[in-house]
Amino acid sequence: MADDMTAHSFDDVVRIEEETSSSQTGRSKPVRIEEVARLADVSPITVSRALRNPDLVSEKTRKRILEVVQETGYWSNPHASALRSGRSSIVAVFVSNLLSQQYTRAAQACAQVIEANGLQMMVGQTSYSYSRELTAIQSLRALRPAAVFLTGVIELEENRRMLRDLNIPIVESWAHTRDPIDMLVAFSNVDAGRLAATHLANRGFKRPAFIGRGGGRGKLRLQGFTERLSQRDLPLTGSVVVDQVESIENGRSAYRKLQESGVSFDSVFCANDLLGIGAMIEAGAQGQRIPEDVGILGFGDRSDLAALSPRLSLVGVDTSQIGRQAGEMILSRLNGEEAPERLCVDLSLLQGVTT
């Protein structure tokens, strides 16, 4: 784990603005009870008593605390108190795709950390969809979890506002953004693309192509990929944009589309684990020799993809490390301890037999 953020490139995630009234605008960070106590000039325990057992606090003090609560939008989270008192609570985890082992591995690692400390995990899937993401976030109001872990970053400003308003620990991941909602443990997608281009160039490939999602993290990986290719005086010979990545079949069909486009390519960077596996299977099914006829470079969890046969070369990330760190951040925050706002995981190039 590298916590020196200057060592990694930022991912400039596009924020999607929506019209909201001034009363809907969220704070940049969740309000903590210590801040309410400071503004009201009382102790945190007095704030807690005023909100939970108002008869124990004088009317004058209670009124001052309630004024600060109203001004700051503070919300007293019963699950945080439940954790401190030893009762179980829920951590909501939303993954981009349950079929992708990189996300489920991160969720599993997070679960191992929090379940050892009396918390339970509830998992949902957003499927790279803004509408499903919105539905998931809206469900949190009724669920009232202790914390939330997301295998991604939230792009819609309205969804970011709703998460802030929960006033609970929020951990985003998978993109090294400059402005997380609360906490972030991630890697640089731009650097992932650069590492991929450097590897293909060093292996002697001259006509690389790209397969990946057109938005979000796929776009960032393509950005880094094309930047580094240009620096190495290599062209991007072709690309196929995949709107949805739901299975290995998406990778197979994307590879066929790349061939049907008529471009002459000798290698492909597949910016997703399912796409890389699918492209490798499709190339093999067509009788192409890998890497003699075409080199294929994937991206994903290094412990999963490197075990494939043939062994896929990939830009790898330890997604279990992301999940463990997210769980530790959540526990620290719920226990009233300091937690790092951002951590960045290092990427690595794992040489297989496909490049």
UniProtKB/TrEMBL annotation:
Q: Name one Pfam family in it.
A: Peripla_BP_3
Q: Which InterPro entries match?
A: HTH_LacI, LacI/GalR-like_sensor, Lambda_DNA-bd_dom_sf, Peripla_BP_I
Q: List the residue ranges of the region (Disordered).
A: 1-30
Q: In its keyword annotation, does this UniProt entry include 4Fe-4S? A: no
- What does UniProt give as the signal peptide span? none
Among SMART domains, the record links this protein to: HTH_LACI (SM00354)
Q: Identify the PANTHER family for this entry.
A: LACI-RELATED TRANSCRIPTIONAL REPRESSOR, TRANSCRIPTIONAL REGULATOR
Record protein name field: Transcriptional regulator, LacI family
Q: Which residues form the HTH lacI-type domain?
A: 31-85
Q: Which organism is the protein's source?
A: Roseibium suaedae
Task: Please list the GO terms describing molecular function.
Answer: DNA-binding transcription factor activity; transcription cis-regulatory region binding
Q: For bias kind Basic and acidic residues, which ranges apply?
A: 1-18
Instruction: Tell me which domain of life the UniProt entry assigns to the organism this sequence originates from.
Output: Bacteria
Provide the alphabetized UniProt keywords.
DNA-binding, Transcription, Transcription regulation
